[in-house]
């Protein structure tokens, strides 16, 4: 009999796998453009170290991670053809044991800083 903790752990592992599968689908030519656009946004948000609601805020800090990311993944997975998402899930599962890249994390942080700076510049220049 599985415990609740084991089920939650398996769910979290599947979410992590699907984040990478969605990222791979966003880069695939066979993915419809609308699914590709949403997949890129969901994967960028899920893999980004910057959250909509900072995690240090008690309880609600983790709500975006617990609610927004899984819902975004669910929506994207439904937009992608089943055989294509199955292929990307296999690729993501195979990559689960690979080491993480600090360079990619730095690149994502720099990208978010650039987007924030550009948004601020647009806001200030429109005045």
From TrEMBL:
Keyword Transmembrane: yes
Chain segments annotated as coiled-coil in the UniProt record: none
Keyword Cell membrane among record annotations: no
InterPro entries to which the protein is assigned, alphabetical: DUF1232
Pfam families, per the entry: DUF1232
Keywords: Membrane, Transmembrane, Transmembrane helix
Domain spans labelled DUF1232: 35-71
Cellular component aspect of the GO annotation: endomembrane system
Membrane topology: Multi-pass membrane protein
Transmembrane segments: 33-50, 56-77, 104-124
Subcellular location: Endomembrane system
Protein name in the entry: Uncharacterized membrane protein YkvA (DUF1232 family)
Organism: Phyllobacterium bourgognense
């Amino acid at each position: 009999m599985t415990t609740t903790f084991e089920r939650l752990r398996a769910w979290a592992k599947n979410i992590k796998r699907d984040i990478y599968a969605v990222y791979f689908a966003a880069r695939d030519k066979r993915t419809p453009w609308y699914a590709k656009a949403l997949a890129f946004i969901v994967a960028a948000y899920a893999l980004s170290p910057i959250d909509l609601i900072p995690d240090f805020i008690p309880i609600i800090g983790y709500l975006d991670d617990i609610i927004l990311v899984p819902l975004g993944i669910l929506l994207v997975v439904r937009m992608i053809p089943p055989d294509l998402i199955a292929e990307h899930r296999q690729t993501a599962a195979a990559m689960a044991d690979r080491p993480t890249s600090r360079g990619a994390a730095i690149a994502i942080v720099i990208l978010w800083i650039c987007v924030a700076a550009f948004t601020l510049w647009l806001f200030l220049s429109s005045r």
